[in-house]
Amino acid sequence: MPAPIKLHQLRAFVEVTRQGSIRAASRAAKLSQPALSKSVQELEEALGAQLFIRQRQGVQLTEVGRDFFRHASLVLEELRVAQEEIQQRLGHAGGSVNIGVGGSIARTLMPKVITQFHQSFPDVKVRILEGQLTTMLPALRQGELDFTVNTWCPGHQDNELSYEKLMERDYCVVARRGHPLAQATSLEALRHCSWTMPSPNSSYYRLLQDLFAESGPPPAITITCETFMACASLLAQSDFVSILSQDFFSDALVGHRLVALKLKEKMPKATFCLIRRKDTALTPMGAQLARLFRQHSQTE
């Protein structure tokens, strides 16, 4: 009969995996290195399998370790959610909510939602991760994010997740003021420009492949900017072009330095969804935050 797995062993394993070494995990968890090493060793003995390859500069997961990490991290997140849900239902408005947002949401919807939420629940910790949906899928699957508000398009499916449509937004091709091709009227005229985009595998930008294909081979995209600020700064200070949400021009820092090109091709609308795991209920605080995103998305 296999030896029982203990909670502190799972926590030690997950922390060492996330930090990449026993030493870094020791600092993060505020536990001694011998204690962490012993917990991981006991876990390996209980499983009858090696989870890490020990190296001079840290540790590396074995194939078994990678598979077990997905289960272990989800178990710990489910326990956190269950514990916080009970406390919140008892009237203790604490705990934490971890969310992801796309760049457009981070600039527009998120500040209003978070401000209102914090005024109502000042003791709840909120962690906000900005990025494309593709970069957030592992954290969503493992329970490290409660939900994300991000772009999604049909065909970008994940059976573990639910997609609740919140709103649509218009997108356009963007360049700096004074760009040599600021008067361009077609995508064909921009084919040989330097383009920057988020990950080409991201949900909205996959729609653009069909649009470009109608007029020939798509432009080569060699520069990837995963965050709004990185993309905006590059556009404002170079001759790169990109495709961004039209609400981008209201940005106080760089919006006035960029222009939307008036092209004959209309960019596809982006659909924004509230995305979360199907098999996990939100905590009361997570549900409150999701409700505010739904509420504010109707007024955008």
CATH fourth-tier homologous superfamily of the largest domain: Periplasmic binding protein-like II
According to DSSP, the number of beta strands is 12
Order of helices and strands: HHHEEHEHHEHEEEEHEHEEEH
Query: What structural class should be given to the helix and strand makeup?
Result: alpha/beta
- Oligomer state equals single chain
Question: What is the first-to-last residue Cα distance?
Answer: 58 Å
Low-confidence stretches: none
Keywords for this entry:
three-stranded antiparallel sheet; D-Maltodextrin-Binding Protein, domain 2; 3 domains; Arc Repressor Mutant, subunit A; 300 residues; globular; alpha/beta
What does the model show?
The chain is an alpha/beta fold and 300 residues long. It folds into three domains: 7-74, Winged helix-like DNA-binding domain superfamily/Winged helix DNA-binding domain (Arc Repressor Mutant, subunit A), CATH 1.10.10; 93-159 and 277-297, D-Maltodextrin-Binding Protein, domain 2 (3-Layer(aba) Sandwich), CATH 3.40.190.10; 171-268, Periplasmic binding protein-like II (D-Maltodextrin-Binding Protein, domain 2, 3-Layer(aba) Sandwich). It contains ten helices and twelve strands. It has helices spanning 7-19, 22-29, 33-47, 63-89, 103-107, 109-120, 133-141, 203-213, 228-236, 284-297; strands spanning 52-55, 58-61, 96-101, 125-130, 147-152, 161-169, 171-176, 196-197, 223-224, 242-245, 258-260, 270-277. The strands form four sheets. Strands 4-3-5-12-6 form a five-stranded mixed β-sheet, sandwiched between helices. The chain has a three-stranded antiparallel β-sheet with strand order 10-7-11. A two-stranded antiparallel ribbon has the order 1-2. Helix 8 (203-213) links the parallel strand 8 (196-197) and strand 9 (223-224). The longest helix has 27 residues, at 63-89. It is globular, with a radius of gyration of 23 Å. The model has no long low-confidence stretch (mean pLDDT 86).
